[in-house]
Amino acid sequence: MSRLAESLLRALGLLLLLGAFGFAATKAPDRTLESLIQRWAPPPSEFIDLNGQLLHLRDQGPSADKLPIVLIHGTSSSLHTWEGWVKELSKTRRVISFDLPGFGLTGPAISGDYSADAYVKTVHALLDHLQLERVVLGGNSLGGEIAWMVAAAAPERVAGLILVDAGGYAFTPESVPLGFALARLPGLGVLSEYALPRSVIERSVKNVYGDPSKVSPELVERYYEITLRAGNREALRQRINQMVLGDQAGRIKSLRLPTLILWGAKDRLIPPSNGQAFARDIAGSHLVSFPDLGHVPQEEDPLTSLAPVQEFLTTLKP
Description:
The protein is of the alpha/beta class. Helices cover 43% and strands 14% of the residues. Strand 5, helix 5 and strand 6 (158-164) form a beta-alpha-beta unit. The longest helix has 24 residues, at 3-26.
């Protein structure tokens, strides 16, 4: 064997050894739903059977509210992203938040369908299950896209829209969270189902904040543990592979209902210009920009981002 060949083999062996140590250090097996419930789904969390799909749900505030508020989170998030808003809103309003199939503690979609249309059907089914005739729909990112699509499909059921850095138009990100980028890569995406460095989650969360210093270890821990819910990592890969940006954008101009648009000016995932496009295409809508916030204003600064929402809600009639 030549010296070159020997050197290459030694180098390969060293890489494999280092890889094995690295894999062992970042090995992150799935966690069962049962192991996560005590910490991440205490009361008032409940789990309902929605046409065969287990769904993690919180229904808070006065049940007699004639115009409940339904909040929908974004990709790789969970109902926990709305906790700051819900704490204040539920003092006087009925507020319903839930984990979309594929995310949070709801877990993978039984259908394997992670298209926006499939999520719209989920929301319709949830409204039917809870016997809600009309609601205020709010959503962030993917959740915002789902919210306006529900309103476009069934305007009689939606009294008002709250779109928070919402999806809908095609866009080119300034920066993509590391976790999303890895999920797009076939080899690394599959590997992430077995090994997941906590640093990947931390970098991904910091990427969507206007001020990364606000991302606490406790917040990273929540995202990390819920990401490990059995099936969520594979669901993220499927969702990203099934996603088509802007394919429904032509329907936005059909919306004719009170709409509040909130946007973080430091959003590097979905650019603020998309917020301006919503304001242009939805007649009578109102756009509020937050100079210091990023892609998840409701989580980064709940009180600041909630203030225009509370004012907006006073203008809506049951």
